[in-house]
Amino acid sequence: MRHILFGVNFQVELRVLVGLASLASVGYAQTVTTFDAPNAGFTIATAINSAGQITGYYEDTIDQITHGFLREPDGTITTFDGPPLTLTYTSFTFARTINSAGQIAGSYFESSVPAGESRGHGFLRDRDGTITPFDIGTADHVLNTAINPAAQIAGSYVFSDLPSPTAAFLRQPDGSITTFYDHSGFTVFTAINPAGQITGYGGAIGAFLRQRSGSITAFHIPNSIYTYPVGINSTGRITGYYSDASYFYHGFLRQPGGTITTFDALNSSATLPQAINAASQIAGQYQDPNGRIHGFLRQRDGSITTIDVPSSTYTYPVGINSAGQITGYYFDGWAYHGFIFTP
User: Fold this and answer.
1) How far apart are CA 35 and CA 41, in angstroms?
2) Average pLDDT for residues 243-258, to the nearest whole number?
């Protein structure tokens, strides 16, 4: 099975010592809870909100279909699917992001459009379970990436008729949609904060920050080949990763004024931040020289803690909330499972 940096419901409470991956070898206690959706062959957690609710997706071993899920802080898991359409059926649902109100955004793919093909739609799931699907014209696929507390959704879509086949969009709570592309071949919105600031990247513009007014500020990591912003917090700080001339990946933190700090986890051959919270704590993944993938937590002072789920061979943190809780998924040698670290 290839691992990329980027079953029955159960919970296991463990106490682990997490080592500090900085110059000082210090540890502290943390609780990790692992979980799976019902009948899951694999469980992928994708985001966590300030209340500790977790969303993601899983494959059901019975119907071999991918479904979305919402995990409550007490461990209760609710599963859901995108709404079926006329003469088609929903075959895959991917819940990607959740806001502080418990609203979830994601994508679902229907098959037989026509037979043998699939089309991806966006969706918004409200706290009461109501799911609202949406499309962007006749786009082939709508890929939701982020949602903020106001229920603004930022993401990307694939439209084979556009000069730029992958373009970005911003959906407002009233359902209106603004699109953006730079004619370079692709444009991607990756994250949105409570103020409506969006970060992302494009083929021509590179990494950028889009203000609520629509103005764009491009930025670039010196001596890098590619720059990939992945998260923006309420203060406008942006995290992500970049590739150097030797194609090694490193993390970065961009301040609201434009100052950029780069960083790496200790003994890392690739460092890939995935999320940032209001306190500027950053969660992500790194690969060690032996090819094993670990999680990390970077504090505002720059110290970095390694995070490994016990008995895992690979650990992938993908989200962090205001309380410093981290969610993600891990591989145990057989399948992927969800987890939550609680400080």
Assistant:
1) 12
2) 97
